[in-house]
Amino acid sequence: MTQRHPTEQRYTMTDVPENSQPVQMLDFARQFAGIRKEILEAIENVCDSQRFILGPQVESFEKAAARACGVPHGVGCASGTDALWLAMAAANIGPGDAVITTPFSFFATVSAILRCGAQPLLADIDPATFNLSADAVEGVLRTHTRSKVKAVMPVHLYGQCADWDAFTALKQRHGLLLIEDAAQAFGATWDGIYAGALGDLAAFSFYPTKNLSAFGDAGLLTTPLAEFDDHARVLRAHGMRQRYYHEEVGWNSRLDSLQAAILEVKLRYLPEWNQQRRDHAARYDELFRVAGLVASSTAEGIVLPITDPRAGHVFHQYVIRAPGRDALRQYLTERKIGSEIYYPVPLHLQTSLASLGYKAGDFPASEAAAVEVLALPMYPELRDDEQQTVVDAIASFYK
Predict the structure, then answer these.
(1) Contacts (Cβ under 8 Å, ≥6 apart) of 290
(2) Do 64 and 243 form a contact (C-beta atoms < 8 A)?
(3) Phi and psi for 220 in degrees, rounded to 5?
(4) Which of 337, 327, 382, 339 lies closest to 18, judged by CA?
(5) Partners of 219 in beta bridges
(6) With 0-12 CB in 10 A as exposed, 13-18 as middle and 19+ as buried, what is 218?
(7) Structural contact between residues 258 and 215, judged by C-beta atoms closer than 8 angstroms
(8) pLDDT of 6-50, one tens digit each?
(9) CA 9, CA 381: separation in Å to the nearest integer?
(10) Which residue from 96, 196, 249, 282 has the highest number of Cβ atoms inside 10 Å of its Cβ?
(11) Residue 322, SS3?
């Protein structure tokens, strides 16, 4: 269901002046050009080894990624979606259990809960950070049998960790598991602790658009607990600990050696790349302020991303709230400037999730975000002049 923002009618398309240069939402080629030799050497080593599934490169990457997150255990798998499922299945979440999460996220956040046979319960977001609100989760816990709710799964949306102080307090009060959907947040921190080391389990995606990206699908589960690590390893290989002896019904979710080798090369550069993203975000902030476009609400102008002072944001996306968002996006597209909407339809309004029993109006903060958010070009190799072009175009639209 698409909702219309009350200010949408104020903005209509005008004549589009010729753009001085196109600006892509993301340019994979620039990153590859800088590390091409290392990547091709890593691929060649895998080809020479003829070890393509769960080979030594996978073990090496798992250890390196776990170290980067500050946890003892990392389990590579086939995708970020599988990592979410593995995290819950490793903790024996299944039929009869419920998991509380956000309606303002990618579809996999909820579909992975359903895949476990558990019940997704939704709670609204903090409108400032777009992350799951711990207060809203507390409200859900008051209205459901607490023994049924086994876990809370906050999403570190756009690269900023959820308020982990508040969720830790929830865990202590209610005895819940905390599972991080950290798909967009490799390298992000909360109070100096890395995403992936905050909860009982965490799930990462290495989809090609992510900060740490594979050349295809790939994922990772991290955990401080050996029993979850062991269970996840059995589950990802059809429930086998010993070949052809199946302890339980698992799944085929093995990370291949090519992706692991590529990811380990990129992991060495990730701190630098994440800092470049933060620098770009700060430059966007300044350019928008100089252009006089910044306001505290979309009734008056653009609302910039807010970073909690306890969070180390990695800006997987740079997301503004924009009045007349859809018209603005069309205007940018006409000028060959990339943008994206993450996400135009909250999960509780998705047709395929109607059986969850929610309706329009149940999560007003998520629904408001869905009609206002716009992600602008953001990647480490983005140039200053390209950012200026983006902001100039937006200023032209509102003028």
Answers:
(1) none
(2) no
(3) -150, 135
(4) 337
(5) 77, 205
(6) buried
(7) yes
(8) 444 455 444 445 556 899 999 999 999 999 999 999 999 999 999
(9) 36
(10) 196
(11) coil
Report how far residue 82's alpha carbon sits from residue 98's, in angstroms, rounded to the nearest whole number. 18
* Residue 275 tokens, joined: 């800092």
What is the Cα–Cα distance from 282 to 273, expressed in whole angstroms?
14
Q: Bridge partners of 237? A: 252
pLDDT, tens digit only, all 399 positions of the chain: 344 444 444 554 444 455 568 999 999 999 999 999 999 999 999 999 999 999 999 999 999 999 999 999 999 999 999 999 999 999 999 999 999 999 999 999 999 999 999 999 999 999 999 999 999 999 999 998 766 999 999 999 999 999 999 999 999 999 999 999 999 999 999 999 999 999 999 999 999 999 999 999 999 999 999 999 999 999 999 999 999 999 999 999 999 999 999 999 999 999 999 999 999 999 999 999 999 999 999 999 999 999 999 999 999 999 999 999 999 999 999 999 999 999 999 999 999 999 999 999 999 999 999 999 999 999 999 999 999 999 999 999 998
Name all domains of the chain by residue range, CATH numbers in brackets: 8-26+270-398 (3.90.1150.10), 31-267 (3.40.640.10)
At which residue do the structure tokens 């909250």 appear? 346
Locate 128 and state its tokens. Answer: 């400032």
Report whether 307 contacts 347 (CB < 8 A): no
**Using CA atoms, how far apart are residues 353 and 358, in angstroms rounded to an integer?**
9
CA distances from 179 to 137, 164, 189, 384 (A): 14, 11, 15, 37
To the query of whether residue 210 is one of the catalytic residues in this protein, the response is yes
The one catalytic residue in 148, 150, 210, 399 is 210
Q: What is the DSSP track for 123-172?
A: -PBPTTT-SBPHHHHHHHHHHS-TTTEEEE--B-GGG----HHHHHHHHH
SS3 77: strand
Locate 287 and state its tokens.
Answer: 């350019």
User: Would you call 256 helix, strand, or coil by DSSP?
Assistant: strand
Beta strands in 29-109 (DSSP E): 73-77, 98-101
Using the structure block, give the residue that is written with the tokens 């339980």.
248
The residue type at 33: A
Q: CA nearest 63: which of 74, 54, 55?
A: 74
pTM of the model: 0.94
